[in-house]
Amino acid sequence: MSRPDLPPTPPTRERSRRHSWVRVLIPVALILVWLAGASFGGPLFGKVDEVSSNDQTTYLPESADATKVQALLGEFNDSDAIPAIAVFTSDDELSATELDAISDAVAGAPDVEGVTDDVSPALPSEDGRAVQAFIPIDSDAELADTVSALGEELRSGMPDGVTVYITGPAGLSADLVAGFAGIDGLLLGVALLAVLVILVLVYRSLLLPLVVLSTSLFALCVALLVVWWLAKFEVLLLSGQTQGILFILVIGAATDYALLLVARFREELRVAQDKGTALLAAWKGSVEPIVASGGTVIAGLLCLLLSDLKSNSTLGPVAAIGIVFAMLSALTLLPSLLLLFGRAVFWPRRPRFEPEVVAAEHGMRTTGLWARLAGLIKRRPRVIWIVTTIVLLVGAAGITQLRADGVPQSDLVLGASEARDGQVALGEHFPGGSGSPVYVVVDEDRLQDAADVLLANDGVDGVSVTAADSPSGTAPVTEDGIAPIGAPGTPAPEPTTVDGEVLLQGTLTDAADSEEAASTVRELRSDLDDIDALVGGVTATSVDTNDASIHDRTLIIPVILVVIMLILMLLLRSILAPVLLILTTVLSFGTALGVSALVFNGIFDFPGADPAVPLFGFVFLVALGIDYNIFLMTRVREESKAHGTREGILRGLSITGGVITSAGLVLAATFAALSVIPILFLVQLAFIVAFGVLLDTFVVRSLLVPALTYDIGKAIWWPSKLWRKGED
Question: Which residue intervals define the domain SSD in the entry (predicted)?
Fold first, then answer.
């Protein structure tokens, strides 16, 4: 037993050796755990389509009329096939020979793998220059491959001068599938390459960017492993859109968290010779802002669970899972790699052990861009924040030009589209809604009442009822009732009934994804309300989706603001600072959305935007944009305790300026990578978030927030202890 009056026994060589082994074994063990997780998750990149769906109806709430009708269609038709419409057009009237060739081609369509036998006959248009045929595709078939093969088969026997299009729900869905095809390879490759280039330019190192990217990629692999199996067991719904956002969010967030830790590690290596001591100090200094930042993003994402749309509500937990693993990789895998490499990770610009130089700097950089900016803010804080606010308000005024009330399904995919061209051709020669009827489910005894409402609407070209004993599966309905089919005197077919209900189909005069068709569906729902009819179909699904998106936007945005504000209050132990940070972030979002609206309308000439675009843009910009304010203000609070608030603001800005700017560039680059996927929603989201992050990084966090807080002084910490006892 050692005597208390004697100095402690110095560590023995054996104890020191044991400590060294522990410092090696723990990092190696953590690296192996992450490597094992990545080895299981990596192969799933090419298998996401096995557990995902891009069918809009599956994302509607169960209470929506379109959802209820969709669930009943299979019972009436005994099939859940996806209809494709083959359109054959010619500049001149089709000859008898050409019509025979078209009929033969349509009759042979079931020979294509994935096409069912219930193919309609070839139906000529009134002008004689076009023919259409309805070709159902099995729901279990590979849709994009089947549509492509069907098009090739039909074109192979066509005479010169006859053009073939495959459109309708199957054709438009195949376009979406093809649009999302680049997510696993192209999107991931572009995002990683963009991050690698930025990291090499920032750190001028070869090894460090690879270490940081490994952290991000391992986090993504493990997150995908968890999400894939949750989707496999139908705990979560996964779509191409959600998948793309998950990839980008994990890479961007994990890299941002890694940059924060790396910056603190480099900082500590200048005052600590031992890499383990430096890493521990860096980890302790980084864990609070990383956890607070990740927690804020997770809280904002989980607010999406309040959404009526499953495409929104399922994104919340999927993306939150990604953020969890981004944080874990930055706080476990990255420190393990840094501990193994030590100063060598920064080669060829290794940080020197120079405590004397650091002491002479008094913990604050006195040269460089951020030191000069801190000096400018010290001299003119009020002018800077007022001018910056005015400029941002001018940009935000453009938000009135944003048209976020939905876009036609045919415009969801950018670039060339056979399905879109086919819709145009269809509208030129047939009623625009051919092949995508409005469905009405009504009690059998109210069949004629419902049919009369449909027939009286100018947006409906014709009405039929599902009838199993009719050769075509339907029978026309007129003002006099169900019309007989065949020779005069033939009795009219009996309508198919399911639990006392019948299924009417109305052919729309306008394209099913047009605003005019949407107006027709709304009118029909209003007129049919008295007879308790359900209205569904492609157009109704679009209407219900847009309505749900607008409801979600109105509900969720205020909830996110309140949740994030409460988190900031707990983190900063203040009320005034979080309120001001939220206001600056909202202003930044408004400016990003306003400028984006002007760019979408004036430069890209987009047809509009999905109602969910502002919601998603808000979630990512506010949740991620507040990250940089957290990185800045946690350091400002730390410095303010020792040097006073105004000095702490200048120190915090000069110290964090470089790392936060680098993080902003990385996040903007990763979101910009979404634009390589030719889906309108993702391209618009990519621009809004990328531009918004850069705006937040270089203007709001670098000028507005520091200048405003410097002008206010220690009152920014009201009502915390730092406000009462701190110094300006």
Answer: 582-710
d(CA 654, CA 673): 30
Give the C-alpha separation, 210 to 221, whole Å. Answer: 16
Largest CA distance in the chain: 119
Instruction: Read off the pLDDT of residues 122-136 as tens digits, 9 standing for 90 and up.
Output: 989 989 999 999 999
Q: What are phi and psi of 498, to 5 degrees?
A: -130, 110
Domain with CATH 3.30.70.1430 in the chain: 79-178
Evaluate if residue 594 carries a pLDDT over 90: yes
Phi and psi at 481, nearest 5°, equal: 115, -165
Retrieve residue 345's tokens.
């990770």
Does the 79-178 domain belong in CATH 3.90.1700.10?
no
**Rounded to the nearest 5°, which phi and psi values hold at 85?**
-115, 120
- Sheet with strand 163-167: strands edge to edge: 123-124, 130-137, 82-89, 163-167
Q: Nearest 10 degrees: CA dihedral of 678, 683, 684, 690?
A: 180
Instruction: Please name the fold of domain 1-50+205-361.
Output: Multidrug efflux transporter AcrB transmembrane fold (1.20.1640)
Cis before 335? omega within 30: no
Q: Which segments of the chain belong to CATH 1.20.1640.10?
A: 1-50+205-361
Return the exposure string of 244-271: e unless at least 16 CB atoms fall within 10 Å of the residue's CB, then b: bbbbbbbbbbbbbbbbbbbbbbbbbbbb
**H helices of 644-719, where?**
645-672, 680-695, 705-712
The pair phi, psi for residue 130, each rounded to 5°, is -155, 155
Burial letters 426-439, b for 16+ CB under 10 A, else e: bbebbbbbbbbbbb
From 137-141, 161-165, 335-339, the region with the lowest mean pLDDT: 137-141
Q: How far apart are CA 502 and CA 495, in angstroms?
A: 7
Distance CA(281)–CA(279), nearest Å, equals 5
Domain 437-511+514-543 indexed as CATH 2.60.40: no
DSSP, collapsed to helix, strand or coil, labels residue 85 as strand
- pLDDT higher than threshold 60 for residue 113: yes
Report cis status (omega within 30 of 0) of the bond before 348. Answer: yes
Strand partners of residue 504:
440, 465
688/261 Cα distance (integer angstroms):
28
Query: Closest Cα to residue 405, out of 606, 599, 244?
Result: 606
- Quote the pTM value: 0.84
CB 623 within 8 A of CB 560: yes
As a whole-number percent, the residues of the chain with pLDDT over 70 amount to 94
DSSP secondary structure letter of residue 499: T
What's the full length of the chain, in residues?
728
Does domain 369-401+573-728 correspond to CATH entry 1.20.1640? Answer: yes
| 3-state percent helix, strand, coil for the chain, nearest multiple of 5 | 70, 10, 25
